[in-house]
Amino acid sequence: MNLESLFDGILALSLLWIAWQTLTIRDLFRAVILFIVYGLLMALTWIRFSAPDVAIAYLAIGIGFTGVLFLDLLRDLRESL
Q1: pLDDT tens digits for range 2-27
Q2: What is the DSSP letter of 35?
Q3: Which residue of 2, 9, 55, 64 has the lowest C-beta tally within 10 Å?
Q4: Which three-class secondary structure state does DSSP give residue 28?
Q5: DSSP label at residue 81
Q6: Where are the domains of the chain?
Q7: What angle do CA 49, 55, 56 make, to 5 degrees?
């Protein structure tokens, strides 16, 4: 087993673990942060697949736009409670 295969395996297991944690965690703020981390790892996965254009689009839309919207939604929810 070479170093690239080891890195790919760790990346795949990290994606699965973070996805599971994001779905099962009870704290919404931590879930949003895990969602953002998941997106960063997913962009790294797209780069490993030699698709940097998809990685950049995923970072811009999946992390930048959606992550900011989720954080803004959490702020609005906390203000209304």
Answers
A1: 999 999 999 999 999 999 999 999 99
A2: H
A3: 2
A4: helix
A5: -
A6: 31-81
A7: 150
Sign of CA dihedral 17, 22, 25, 30: positive
42 and 15 in contact (C-beta within 8 Å)?
yes
Q: Which residues contact 67 (CB under 8 A, 6 or more apart)?
A: 32, 35, 36, 39
Per the structure block, which two tokens stand in for 25?
């965690």
Angle at 5 between CA 24 and CA 48, to 5 degrees: 75
The C-alpha atoms of residue 31 and residue 24 are separated, in whole angstroms, by 8
Q: Which sign, positive or negative, has the C-alpha torsion 64, 66, 70, 73?
A: positive
The mean pLDDT of 27-35, rounded to a whole number, is 94
For 34-76, write each residue's pLDDT tens digit.
Answer: 999 999 999 999 999 999 999 999 999 888 899 999 999 999 9
Whether 39 and 59 have beta carbons less than 8 Å apart is answered as yes
